[in-house]
Design brief:
Rossmann fold, Cell_div_suppressor_SulA
Length: 156
Amino acid sequence: MQIPQSLSRTQLPLFEGFLASSVAPLLEQPAKHWQDAPEAFSELSLRGAAGHCLSLLAPILRDLSQNQDARWLTLIAPPPSLTQHWLRDAGLNRERILLLHPRGQQSPLALAEEALRLGRSHTVVSWLHPLESAARAQLEQAARQGKAQSLNISLG
């Protein structure tokens, strides 16, 4: 029996496969350039049933929680469905995660900025929707200042 070609190939993670096939030929510089200056801000938009969105989100957060960086993975004002029980069932390293919620008059954006600027987290994940371009710029600047990554997730 012959194995179909698509099953016999090693599968690249989604974004690596995209970058390798679509972007690499467009670059004049080698890919090393991307590694030297990683983006400080990323955004992920997930639409659909809450359970499906969480299923897609789980491996991303799991990888981030197992990062070799000694700093925290910080989740700012996660949705109510992202419980301690869900974190455990999704296989996240809960010893490396901080769950933070704004207090008083503090906004989730201000809390995310502060967490990024302090630099005690390798990645700060926020759930800000909608996110205006000025707020994106604020998060990116704070991430650069704290030598961290900002990931905003928009759930639909």
